[in-house]
Design a protein that fits this description.
With about 375 residues, this protein is of the alpha/beta class. It has 2 domains: about 15-30 and about 315-380, Aspartate Aminotransferase, domain 1 (Alpha-Beta Complex); about 45-285, Type I PLP-dependent aspartate aminotransferase-like (Major domain) (Aspartate Aminotransferase, domain 2, 3-Layer(aba) Sandwich), CATH 3.40.640.10. About 35% of the residues lie in helices and about 20% in strands. Bound molecules: pyridoxal-5'-phosphate.
Length: about 375
């Protein structure tokens, strides 16, 4: 039997993972700034998450949300501390794409409209609905027709927002485009977007599957002084366990009926235990504050790379950081891995770091040195 993977093979067999590190089968340690596409933000196998999962496994492992069980109540109490403003309802799913999918369904149900607006360079997932609002043609075209109509506007372009009108069910947006190249939204853009969606009765769906918890606030939207109508989350919130969530205010919940959606695994007791424990870690270990200070430290340390001729820009928020280079980042990322630092690609020119919150100054020095080596290797080999 062969495992089908649609990702390029990274040529690394991982035998163990703990905190911000993974080890290969020969015992070599790597600093992990990939963390399973951004999942292990609290560190690999955080002891409180592992303990909560073990405990839950000894009680109830699987149970439909048609039944009640204590761990879901504990999770809801923990979520009260991290929920987006005004959003007292949460629906749990298993992946980011599923959360976006539900966000789109809700927008159609609530507004009675069909059209969606998304942005160039967006990434929202690979199920039919979430793929419809994902920009990259290479991902979309073989599977069209997908959901229609979808209009893609230039990101961070306030003028372009005129396209939002009373036929638009929802605008879906990442506050920092992740996969598209670590591109933060501007304040003006997010505020204009909130204004135009409100004016037209259009739902604003913030996709925080990647940005959630890692930008120096609990949710990235808090940097912009706006509040969305629907918020999708995933990756970090389960501390390594596969789980995603859609957060909603009461006025939207009231417009949804039994049977509008469903899921076999969504909200299962193990996921609930993982989310509850992860929220506890967020609260007890000053994760947000540390993310802000370590993110600033990482940015300061990376700044010296700006002098290199191939480096166009270094940008990001908190511990979600990208180095935009004028070359294909693939060889630099490969070289960095040989140096013991695992990063990932974003867009076609960006070396992306999704660092776990517990990285320290030594880790940052190691990451910056590896990035410098990777970039100079790429410059020497590939510059015209
Ligand atoms: C912003 C955003 N939305 C949705 C997704 C899809 O998440 P998943 O791969 O868990 O389906 C991703 C994944 O990278 C993402 O970054």
């Amino acid at each position: 039997m062969k495992l089908l993977s649609f990702y390029q093979d990274r040529s690394l067999r991982v035998a163990k993972a703990q905190g911000q590190y993974v080890w290969d089968e020969n015992g070599r340690r790597y600093l992990d700034l990939h963390i399973g596409n951004g999942v292990a933000f609290l560190g690999h196998r955080h002891p409180k998450v592992v303990e909560a999962l073990k405990e839950q496994m000894n009680q109830v492992m699987t149970l439909s949300t048609a039944f009640q069980t204590q761990i879901r109540e504990s999770m809801l109490r923990e979520l009260d501390n991290v929920k987006p403003e005004g959003m007292d309802n949460v629906f749990l799913l298993n992946s980011g794409a599923e959360a976006v999918e539900l966000g789109l369904k809700i927008a159609r149900k609530v507004t009675g409209r069909r059209k969606f607006i998304a942005f160039r360079n967006s990434f929202h997932g690979r199920t039919a609905g979430s793929l419809s609002v994902t920009w990259n043609r290479k991902y979309r075209e073989p599977f069209e027709p997908l959901l229609e109509p979808v209009e893609f506007l230039p990101f961070n372009d306030v003028e372009a927002l005129k396209a939002v009108d009373q036929t638009t069910a929802a605008v879906v947006v990442e506050p920092i485009q992740g996969e598209g190249g670590v591109i933060p939204a501007t304040h003006d853009f997010m505020r204009a977007l909130r204004e135009v969606t409100e004016k037209n009765g259009t739902l604003l769906i913030l996709d925080e599957v990647q940005t959630g918890w890692r930008t120096g606030k609990v949710w990235a939207y808090q940097h912009f002084g706006i509040v969305p109508d629907v918020l999708t989350a995933g990756k970090a919130i389960g501390g390594g366990f596969p789980v995603s969530a859609v957060f909603l205010p009461d006025w939207i919940r009231e417009k949804l009926d039994e049977g509008d959606h469903g899921t076999t695994y969504g909200g299962n007791p193990l996921a609930a235990a993982a989310v509850a424990a992860s929220c506890r870690v967020l609260r007890e270990e000053n994760v947000v504050e540390r993310t802000e200070s370590m993110g600033a430290e990482f940015m300061r340390s990376l700044a010296k790379l700006k002098e290199r001729k191939s480096v166009r820009e270094i940008r990001g928020m908190g511990l979600m950081i990208g180095i935009d280079i004028r070359l294909n980042p693939g060889p630099a990322i490969k070289q960095m891995q040989d140096e013991g630092v695992i990063a990932l690609k974003a867009g076609s020119t960006v070396i992306r770091f999704l660092a776990p919150y517990l990285i320290d100054k030594d880790d940052i020095n190691v990451a910056v040195a590896a990035a410098e080596k990777g970039i100079s290797f790429t410059e020497a080999k590939f510059s015209p």
